[in-house]
Amino acid sequence: MEVFLAQLVAGLSIGGIYALVAAGMNLLLLVRNIMNYSFAYVVLMATYFGWMAMEATDGDPALGVITMFASALLLTVVTEPLFRVMASRNAPLEAVVVGVGMGMVLTEVMSQFIHQGRPLVFPSALTSWGPGMSHGLFVVSFPQVVAIVVGVLTVVGLLTFLYRSKQGRAFRAMAQDLGTARIIGIPLTRAGVYSFILAGLMAGIAAILVSSALSTSSAPLADLLALKATVVVLVAGGGNLVGGFLLALAVGVAESLTQAYMPGRWSVALVFGILMVAIIARPNGVFGSRS
Amino acid sequence: MLEVAGLSVYYGAVRAVEDVDLYVAESELVALLGANGAGKSSVIAAILGIPTVIRGSVRFEGIELIGMATDRIVARGIAVVPEGRGVMARMTVLENLQLGAYHLKRGGAARIAEVCERFPILGQRLRQQAGTLSGGERQLLAIARGLVGRPRLLILDEPTLGLSPIAIRDLFEAICDLHRGGQTILLAEQNAYQALQAADRAYVFDVGRVTLQGSARELMQDERIQHAYLGEYLAEGGE
Question: Which residues, 6 or more positions from B165, have their beta carbon under 8 angstroms from its beta carbon?
Fold first, then answer.
């Protein structure tokens, strides 16, 4: 039981990170009709910038956190014009190619130029802060709990923004009918930039959670995160924020539990197998697309 | 208020509108008549700056609109109710009305309350999904959304398309009521009889050109109009 609970919490914390990345991708899919495959790579690249800042300052966690947040925001926003071109051409598949290309570039930067390509390990000031809980085999770190809470709060905050604010309603109008949104007078280009800024803020939060809850970062981790978040977005139903959030948590928990109770790396194969069956059974997504 | 001069609109190599001149004075209701594809909607799209190739001039209250972004044109006081209603089906009636207040710095809620007084059926259904309204109600919602932003010019593009005769009658009552209240309206409509009944003046479009223009009363008496557009109404004993 203790192992189960520990794995459950670990799964929810990694699920919270998946949920944040999926929510950022879903937001851009909703508002701009593009799948930004490079989003997870931006998150991991930001962890690298944060790590470098901490390395340069004897592990100052505050500077690391600020650097991660700022670099994620900046990287997301500076790529907006590339995706804007794809959005204006109504070319979502070409946008995937742009995202994959950007992801590869960022992977090379992480692999070739930083820390000689070795995985990063973040200082304990970032990964072991706050009160932990342990009871026998049940061990939970405070950053893991923070990852769950922040993941939930961020997605709830995003939904509140979309349903309660003027700009959020404009985003939803753009998602439903871009032509009418334009005729109503919503400034599409400016709103598109706002959506990237919002996604960049979420990437920044995700980068901080990755570094503190997982304690490590690497280029292969970016590949896995991009793949899993993309699958979560598509299987939940493209643009379905609530569905993406729930499925991300479920994938995190399923991975964690299968790692505990199944041999080797079968956990990933099993979880992706279930998702594959799910998308075949429900082609419009488990929760339906674009809620 | 609105002056269109020498307007030509192109979609790629296709010329949809050729050398159109028209104007709308304050508090007027001006109708654009013509069959489907005659160029009425292209003129409206050009006023909003939507087509990529537009030649000529579109001036609103003395300001040239050609080259201006659509959101800035709307913010200047032009609201367009697009063909096919254009309500956000998966948003509530209230959210649709709130979208109409996008450019208002303040007073959006009060303005929505005013509009709901004018259209009580919408006020009763604020929490209802717009997609569940009837066709006529959706058209009223689209007009109400346009009015929320206090437009000086309201443009209606084919508002009766697909509506039942009763809904068309109610809609024209609402349009005439707005006009009597001093609202300036440009109405693109295939239903020439109803449009001429409501309008002060009208322009008749054919294959992208204005072929006839004049007061609504004059055009009602014009044989060409009677032959082309009013035949069935006259045969049915219409005025």
Answer: none
Paired residues of B212 in beta bridges: B204
Mutate one of A183, A190, A193 to test the B interface: name it (highest B CB count within 10 A): A183
CATH code for the domain of B170 = 3.40.50.300
A and B: number of Cβ contacts within 8 A: 59
pLDDT tens readout for residues B163-220: 888 888 888 898 999 999 999 999 999 888 889 989 999 999 988 899 889 998 888 8
Amino acid at residue number A243 = G
| Sequence-distant (≥ 6) Cβ neighbours of residue B164 within 8 angstroms | B135, B136
Q: How many domains does chain B have?
A: 1
Contacting residues of A for B88, CB less than 8 Å apart: 172-173, 176-177, 180
By Cβ distance, the residue of A176, A183, A190 closest to B48 is A183
Domain coverage including residue B87: 27-51+75-235
Give the ipTM of the model, two decimals please: 0.87
Three-state SS sequence of chain A: CHHHHHHHHHHHHHHHHHHHHHHHHHHHHHHHCCCCCCHHHHHHHHHHHHHHHHHHCCCCHHHHHHHHHHHHHHHHHHCHHHHHHHHHCCCHHHHHHHHHHHHHHHHHHHHHHCHHHCCEECCHHHHCCCCCEEECCEEECHHHHHHHHHHHHHHHHHHHHHHHCHHHHHHHHHHHCHHHHHHHCCCHHHHHHHHHHHHHHHHHHHHHHHHHHHCEECHHHHHHHHHHHHHHHHHHCCCCHHHHHHHHHHHHHHHHHHHHHCCCCHHHHHHHHHHHHHHHHCCCCCCCCCC
Find the closest chain B residue to A177 by CA distance. B88
- Across the interface, of B50, B90, B100, the residue whose CB is closest to A184 is B100
Residues ≥6 apart with Cβ < 8 Å to A94? A86
In the DSSP assignment, the letter for residue B130 is G
Q: How far apart are CA B50 and CA B149, in angstroms?
A: 20
User: What region does A25 belong to: left with phi over 0, alpha with psi -120 to 50, or beta?
Assistant: alpha
Q: Is B62 within the bounds of a domain?
A: no
Report the relative pairing of strands B184-189 and B153-157 from DSSP bridges. parallel
Contact B102 A188 (CB under 8 A): no
Residue at B213 is within a domain: yes
Q: What is the pLDDT of residues B124-134, one digit of tens each?
A: 999 999 999 98
Residue B63 lies in a domain: no
CB proximity A2 to B under 8 Å: no
Surface-to-core class of residue A92, CB atoms within 10 Å of its CB (0-12 exposed, 13-18 middle, 19+ buried): middle
Q: Classify residue B203: in a domain, yes or no.
A: yes
The model's pTM is 0.85
